[in-house]
Design goal:
This protein is an alpha/beta fold. It is about 55% helix and about 15% strand. It has 21 helices and 17 strands. The strands form three sheets. Strands 6, 7, 8, 9, 10, 11 and 12 form a seven-stranded mixed beta sheet that branches.
Length: about 700
């Protein structure tokens, strides 16, 4: 029976229903269940008493209640409720008329009034409840005015009215008692839920790290606070602060500030206010982060004042500031010391180095040669150590700034080759330079970049006893503004153990004690090199295997010098063949590049039309006939690839050359896939451009 009851009561529920919707559905199903139970008992009773018309009316009403239950299970809740309410009122009107008022059927209106508060949510649907009550009152008035006092259609047994009245009175009292108890239970559950929610909110309120004061804006009195506020203000009980004026707890400066804040908040110039204040309690002054938020409750304006004690944070900030000042003073003292010591040490060292060089140039005894070499090496080595320490000191205090000057990367690497190849060959080591497509001029600090390579190559030569050293420079990607270059220094030396590969970049650290004892050095070289690479916005990394050599590599993004002078071999250009009668469309947004391209094309007898963006190029191509087009990839309004796509719609067979400063992997295959037949990298060589134009025109004439 309990299982059947649950199936009926929980019918029509959906996981998507809210809690209030679930309650409404369950209560309606309970109402239908109880009504059907009552109807079933009434039918049995009426058949026993031979009141067949009353039994038939009850059966009809029961069928309509079942229909309402079915609609409710199909999630047509509103229609089901309307049918149930109308059916119940009609049932009572008909039953009162059929049996007469003396039978007491109207007594069932009393439990009916109560049950409506269960079916309809009073809190959320009070208007609906009033409407249902109005319908019910109208039904009661109809019953009392239209129903006869006694009706003898069915009643044939003596004392039947008395028995019916007693029965209806008993049913009415039972249902009224049951529904009253049920309403009491529901209200008690609501009250317990409200108390639990209030307890939960109070727990959060009183365990907050913020001290909270609630102030009435009109009376300017504190009407509430939490436990943390009592702790901050050093009071034992909330009653000591509740009901007191705000002026009793804050200074006059704070009161002025609060008045200004209240004025701004009341005029809605700001939604809230927050800031730091120094507050004074009964025992101490403390720093606090204060947040003031206005809110309305029953039409009255209140302010919530939240106070967060930040005294410890302020103390830590003060201590940190003192430590920073001490560190700055110590750093300045260190810098002055290094500067003074470098001057004091460099003066005698310059004398020693100069004297040793003079002695080596003059006549000396053969036995003295080794002593003079030691003297020169030791003095130069000491000068190098001083320079390393000074550079390290500058980097540590952030005073080392990189310059920006035009640097020809190809010539720079050639200088590196000249500088270190002799040293490598002196140790019978091979020395190789590997680079390609580096005929570019970048803006960088040549001195510091040279220092990076000097440190890396000096280490490579020092720690390599056989094999070779290789310097690799590879252009990974480039545009007309920037070039991404990867640099590598490879050796076949002693290598670095895997557990030491990060330590070698730390200050005054080498791979192990034996290395320091055998090879010497301060352990600053790689540390300085890593910091210098960081200043270039790169990251120095190492890949090494003990006994099999090391590879140090880093990648830099360097700005390309846009004002680089381009030197052209006029003698070679003079003897290039002409292209009479050929028309070429050149699309290039840079005026200087356009001028250079135009100059050479016209020298070769080519008629040139100029476009300074992709959109102009498409318009010109649609108006004229061209034998070939030369398009820059990077242009405003419409880039070269998009422009070529539009041009191919007009003439799919026209040869196209990409005129670009970009360099990336598989550039040729990529451009061919986009419709270009060739590409010329910028800065271009005239003979290269001439060769590709000649090749494309020859291919076009062969096809024709």
């Amino acid at each position: 029976m309990w299982s059947v009851y649950q199936d009926i009561v929980y019918s029509g529920l959906d996981p998507a229903n809210t809690l209030s919707q679930r309650k409404k559905i369950i209560r309606f199903n309970q109402f239908i269940f109880l009504t059907l139970c009552g109807t079933l008992l009434s039918v049995v009773s009426y058949f026993t008493l031979s009141l067949y018309i009353s039994a038939l009316v009850n059966l009809s009403a029961g069928y309509i209640f079942i229909l309402a239950f079915h609609l409710n299970s199909k999630k047509r809740f509103e229609l089901a409720r309307i049918i149930a309410i109308v059916n119940l009122n009609l049932y009572l009107i008909v039953m009162n008329y059929m049996e007469g008022l003396r039978a007491g059927e109207y007594l069932l209106y009393f439990p009916y009034f109560l049950v409506m508060t269960l079916v309809i949510d009073v809190k959320r649907n009070f208007t609906e409840l009033k409407f249902v009550y109005l319908i019910t009152i109208i039904s009661v008035l109809i019953c009392l005015n239209l129903s006869p006092f006694e009706n003898y259609y069915q009643v044939r047994i003596a004392g039947m009215f008395t028995r019916l009245y007693s029965s209806n009175l008993a049913i009415s009292l039972t249902l009224t008692t049951f529904f009253s108890y049920f309403i009491f239970r529901v209200n008690r559950d609501h009250e317990e839920a409200i108390l639990k929610e209030k307890h939960f909110v109070d727990t959060i309120y009183n365990t907050s790290l913020d001290g909270v004061l609630i102030m009435d804006s009109e009376s300017r009195k504190i009407i509430g606070c939490n436990n943390r506020a009592c702790e901050l203000l050093h009071i034992k009980n909330k009653k000591e602060i509740e009901g007191t004026a705000i002026e009793d707890w804050f200074t006059s400066e704070h009161i002025k500030l609060f008045k200004t804040i209240e004025l701004n908040l009341s005029t809605e110039q700001a939604k809230d206010w927050q800031g730091e204040l120094a507050l004074t309690s009964a025992e101490r002054t403390f720093f606090a982060f204060v947040n003031i938020v206005p809110f309305l409750d029953f039409g009255k304006r209140f302010l919530k004042i939240s106070i967060l004690d930040i005294s410890e944070i302020k103390t830590a900030q003060f201590e940190l500031m003192k430590a920073k000042q001490k560190a700055e003073v110590a750093s300045q003292a260190k810098s002055r010391f290094l500067s003074n010591m470098s001057h004091e040490l460099r003066t005698p060292l310059n004398g020693i180095i100069g004297t040793s060089n003079l002695l080596l140039q003059e006549d000396y005894l053969p036995d003295q040669k080794s002593h003079l070499d030691i003297l020169k090496y030791s003095s130069e080595h000491m000068m190098m150590l001083i320079n390393e320490i000074l550079d390290f000191g500058k980097i540590e205090v952030g005073k080392l700034q990189l310059g920006e000057h035009p640097v020809d990367l190809k010539k720079f690497l050639e200088k590196i080759n000249l500088q270190f190849s002799a040293q490598a060959h002196a140790k019978n080591l091979g020395f190789k330079m590997e680079y390609d497509s580096l005929d570019i001029e970048v803006m960088t600090d040549e001195t510091r970049l040279n220092q990076v390579f000097s440190n890396l190559l000096s280490n490579a030569i020092k720690f390599t006893h056989y094999g070779e050293i290789t310097v690799v420079a590879k252009k990974i990607f480039s545009t007309s503004q920037k070039a991404t270059i990867q640099f590598m220094v490879k050796d076949t030396g002693i290598g670095i153990p895997s557990n030491k590969q990060q330590e070698i970049f730390e200050s005054f650290t080498q791979a192990d004690v034996d290395t320091t004892r055998k090879y010497g050095g301060t352990g600053l070289g790689l540390s300085i090199t890593k910091k210098l690479v960081n200043l270039f916005h790169g990251e120095l990394q190492v890949e090494s295997e003990e006994g099999r050599g090391s590879t140090f590599h880093f990648t830099l993004k360097l700005a390309i010098n846009e004002n680089r002078k381009r030197y052209i071999n006029e003698e070679r250009v003079k003897h290039l063949s002409l292209f009479p009668g050929i028309k070429v469309l050149v699309a290039e947004d840079n005026a200087i590049n356009m001028s250079i391209a135009r100059r050479f094309l016209q020298k070769w007898g080519i008629e040139v039309k100029e476009a300074y963006n992709g959109k102009e190029a498409v318009e010109l191509f649609s108006q004229h006939t061209f034998d070939l087009i030369l398009i820059d990839l990077e242009m405003p309004e419409m880039d070269g690839i998009t422009a070529l796509g539009e041009i191919k719609k007009i003439n799919a067979a026209v040869p196209a050359i990409a005129f670009t400063a970009a360099v990336y992997d598989n550039i040729r295959a990529d451009l061919l896939s986009k419709g270009f037949m060739e590409f010329v990298p910028k800065p271009f060589r005239p003979e290269d451009l001439h060769s590709k134009i000649s090749m494309l025109l020859s291919a076009k004439s062969n096809i024709i």
